[in-house]
Design a protein that fits this description.
single chain; about 140 residues; alpha/beta; Rossmann fold; 5 strands; about 20% strand; UspA domain-containing protein; UspA; Universal_stress_UspA; Rossmann-like_a/b/a_fold
């Protein structure tokens, strides 16, 4: 029997942190491996007009993403969970679906109901809504 793989979408938000913890808790019981995915949203920038500022912002987010992924990886490894990291660029909702489809078989996607761009607590965010509608894998949604 092949080891199950859980994809955990993280962005530094409280809901993503809770999704990560839920994935660790379940993987501890099931023996699944985790893939931690951070999507750097590089859309919405006028890259040509503000290239220096764009590069500075993207570099800063890249550094934060690395720190977050490393912290989560260490936490999961302390629970004897096999963990991989992935960082991609693009539109988060599309990249989560694409990554889960195109990289390794994903049995379950963990993500927060809302992320860093949430306007109001308790709402289903645009990313979660899109992933629920388009992903082939099952979804574990955390509020």
């Amino acid at each position: 029997m092949q080891q199950a793989t859980y994809l955990v979408a993280v962005d530094g938000s409280k809901n993503a942190e809770r999704a990560f913890q839920a994935a660790v808790d379940l993987a501890t019981v099931t023996g699944a491996q985790l893939t931690l995915l951070y999507v750097i949203n590089d859309r919405g920038y006028d890259k040509q007009r503000f290239e220096a500022e764009y590069l500075r912002l993207i570099d800063a987010e890249h550094q934060l993403a690395e720190e977050l992924l490393n912290t989560y990886q260490k936490t999961a490894q302390q629970q004897h969970i096999n963990v991989q990291q992935a960082m991609v660029y693009g539109y988060p909702k599309e990249q989560i679906v694409t990554y889960s489809r195109d990289n390794q078989p994903t049995d379950l996607i963990f993500l927060g109901a809302t992320g860093n761009n949430a306007f109001e607590d308790g709402e289903l965010g645009a990313t979660a809504s899109y992933v629920i509608r388009h992903a082939a894998a099952n979804i574990f949604l955390v509020k």
